[in-house]
Amino acid sequence: MAVILTTNTTIGINVSASGDTYITREGFYVAADTDAFDFVDFDNLEYFIEGDVFAGDDGIVASTGANNNDISIGFGASVQAGGDGIQFFGNTVSDSGHDFVNNGSIVGLSGEGVDVRASFSSLINYGSITGFGFGVFYSGTGNSVRNHGTVSSASTGIGLSGSNGEIRNFGGVIAESNGLDVSGGDYIIHNAGNISVGSIGIDAGSGSGNILNAGNILASIGVRMSAPTDSIEQNGRLTNSGEIHADSTGIDIVSVDSVDVFRVVNSGLVSVAAPDGDALSGGGSVEILVNTGTLIGDVTLNGGDDVYFGTNGRVIGVVDGGAGDDILRGGDEDNDLDGGTGDDMLRGGGGDDELRGSAGHDELRGDAGDDLVSGGGGHDLMFGGLGDDDLKGFGGDDTLNGGQGDDLLSGGSGADVFQFYRNAGEDRIWDFQNGTDKIDMTAFSVFFSDINAAMTSRWGNAIIDLDALGGSGTIIVNGAAGALDASDFIL
């Protein structure tokens, strides 16, 4: 195991044995018209670069039989190549991968900055890496790329193909296409730096994995998570405490399988520039979104039985459950929730909310604030909660309960039930259909004779004084003066 100090050469260096250490000192260079430094298929080698490596083709290379070889590029040192800066192959099933540390500069003018096709290999970059294709590309199992410097590319910044890999970015990634690109399952992506790209900031597909963004992403699509069409459950998770700024879509989930589950936890900022853009766009999978931060743009969950919790969060746009039986719960801000198709459960939370059940048999609760609650088609259960609410049943046999506050109730078509509690406020039923709709006053424990005694007429309307029945408030039934009898009530 010899230590070899390289001298200036223009014909390159081919390693001739395993286990040796090579050093290109500061002020010295290794150059060649083709590949400059070739590990061939030898193992357990170290190459320390304090000077420069110049190549017409690839800078530093190794063939498939090579294993457990390390490269360290020092401050001010460089690898400049016409093809790949570093191109390594190796045994894809061995745990004796290649480990690189770069404090200098790596340039692949027409190829990749770093291209490694081996497993259990790693790269730590504190310097700069530039590629025409990928800035950095690793293919194999269990590979790791950690960037504290700068990676730039005319195509994709950092790519990882294979399972159980990880990318951790604490520096900068600049690319014309994607920033961080992973294909393979059980991945880990951690961005605490800056990603500025022309297409997708983080593109993670083909399996389960975890994404953590605590940095900044500027892209056309901020983050994309996808899964193969294979009926096998895949689980993806994105935790965002940083900022994602996108042109069209902040978070894009691409999946057609209902068995797939994607979880998104946002305590940061996701914004889209396009007026019709989505802060989050879901697929046919189950999406679970917990938002305590800010989403600027619509949340379109599409297919699957989706869940949205907006506790202490804010959405400047519409949360649309799409197809499936969804649970949508707003926070303390003003929320705009649409259940879409399916039997959905919507809760407005605090703020002045707008809730739409759309198709299906839905349960809608406005909670606090002055809410607009619309059932749509289906047999809906609607509660206004606190505040002065406006409830509209539309189609189906609906149950409408304004709760406290001065509420407006409209059942629409179908046999509707207007339900009242003791502290109802000043409520009005706009479209009571005598003989079809019902007024539910079971909470008062009274007889119809009591109601009849508390009922008066004015301007063609029936008026029920709830104070006379042990409650507080008034029910005005539009156009029903003299038309209500015991058959119109549920007692």
UniProtKB/TrEMBL annotation:
Superkingdom of origin organism: Bacteria
Renumbered residue ranges of the record's region Disordered: 327-368
Keyword annotations from UniProtKB, A to Z: Secreted
Bias kind Basic and acidic residues: ranges: 353-368
Name of a matching Pfam family: HemolysinCabind
SUPFAM superfamilies from the UniProt entry: beta-Roll
GO molecular function annotations of the record: calcium ion binding
Location of the protein in the cell: Secreted
Major place of residence: secreted
InterPro entries the UniProt entry points to: Hemolysin-typ_Ca-bd_CS, Hemolysn_Ca-bd, RTX_toxin/Mannuronan_C5-epim, Serralysin-like_metalloprot_C
GO CC terms of this entry: extracellular region
Protein name: Calcium-binding protein
Organism annotation: Algicella marina
